[in-house]
Amino acid sequence: MRIVSAEVVVTSPGRNFVTLRITTEDGLSGLGDATLNGRELAVRAYLVEHVVPLLVGRDASAVEDTWQYLYRGAYWRRGPVTMAAIAAVDTALWDIKAKAAGMPLYQLLGGACRVGALAYGHASGRDLPELFDSIRAHLERGYRAIRVQTGVPGLGVVYGVAASVGGQRYDYEPARRTALPVEEEWDTRAYLRHVPGVFEAVRAEFGPELPLLHDGHHRMTPIQAAKLGKALEPYDLFWLEDATPGEDQAALRLIRQHTTTPLAIGEVFNSVHDYQELITGRLIDYVRSAVTHTGGVTGMRRLLDFAGVYGIKSGIHGPTDISPVGMAAALHLDLAVHNFGIQEHMEHAARTLEVFRTSFTFDGGLLHPSDAPGLGVELDDEAAGAFPYEAAYLPVNRLRDGTVHDW
Ligand SMILES: [Mg+2]
To answer: Name one GO biological process term (predicted).
Structure first.
């Protein structure tokens, strides 16, 4: 089963996506997601200039060997651009292998451990009435777990909070199509004063059972995060995510020493090695990597199996800058791994779903990848061609005195 072609499609149906399609001599084709929000063309160049020439003529069935060939063979290891490119190749090869077998991918990965993947949606509001409306809307859409993000008095636009910026809902697409990144203002102490009261109000309104999640988006120091984790203990969070900047693994040890609030991190990681101290030290409860940014199905399976040895569960990253291809790959893993925790889910825009024809379903709060052979996603080239790439950047964050801070 030789590879005869590999092409990279960049399309922007509401936001930018980078997709790799690999085709074999028997006419089978597979898709992989290589989207790196705000740096899309770097991955496209890495694929087109350095990876595609290595793929043509290779055996499409040699998935692990190809992963190692691209990972070890480059000499320069890891990094988001490299690992997104490897992820796209790996996911496309798994798609082909499962199509060749006539099976949904989760069957090749060992079969389903559950009937569906519990998904959490993103509720937010600038104030409590808006937040309550958003939580109710998510419950009506069927969500059985909810991420809660809130505005902070005295601050303008805040990460994760729905607002209309330039006609776009902010929580749907924070990357704005401007010449330079939008700059936001941040005050961690104001945030820390406000958030516990919000969760107290949400529990009072919606009761004790609903799983609630919260994302700190890497903005706190370890001791600030420890203080927040402690303050949120009465409200029984499912997890506190991205409390501190991701590259400082030891920071999680300090947080862990002070709070029993479960901790999740890892969406900016791209390798199992980024988790070594976190997993062996049992410093976190959930791994947050995306299939798209962690070397594909192979890289993610390795990470989840490693985490499982230490009783740590999955919480695969799934915002809308993961394409429907990357999302489908996540859902197949969600079904197949024993240590599944929860799946992030933001619904893609209608335009995105015109380009990517998906088959996955959301029913009763559970996502299912469908039983279509392979990933169950097809790319409509004609529809993709109608949405050319447009440069977009994620925001930059500054403290009130102008210091650049983590966004
Ligand atoms: Mg996050």
So the answer is: carbohydrate catabolic process
Question: How far is Cα 26 from Cα 16, in angstroms, rounded to an integer?
Answer: 31
Of 71, 120, 159, 235, which residue is the catalytic one?
159
For 269, 288, 290, 298, 395, the CA distances from 303, given in Å and listed in that order, are 11, 10, 11, 9, 29
Question: Per the residue annotation, which of 217, 293, 317, 368 is the catalytic one?
Answer: 217
Angle between helices 80-101 and 296-309 (to 10 degrees): 100
Cα 54 to ligand 1 centre (Å): 34
pTM, entire model: 0.97
| Of residues 271, 337, 327, the one with CA closest to residue 86 | 271
Task: Using the structure block, give the residue that is written with the tokens 């958030």.
Answer: 195
Catalytic residue flag (residue 159): yes
For residue 266, pLDDT beyond 70? yes
Q: Where does the pLDDT of residue 4 fall: very low under 50, low under 70, confident under 90, or very high at 90 and above? A: very high
348 is catalytic: no
At residue 169, does pLDDT exceed 80?
no
Instruction: Say which residues have a Cβ less than 8 Å from residue 49's Cβ, sequence separation at least 6.
Output: none
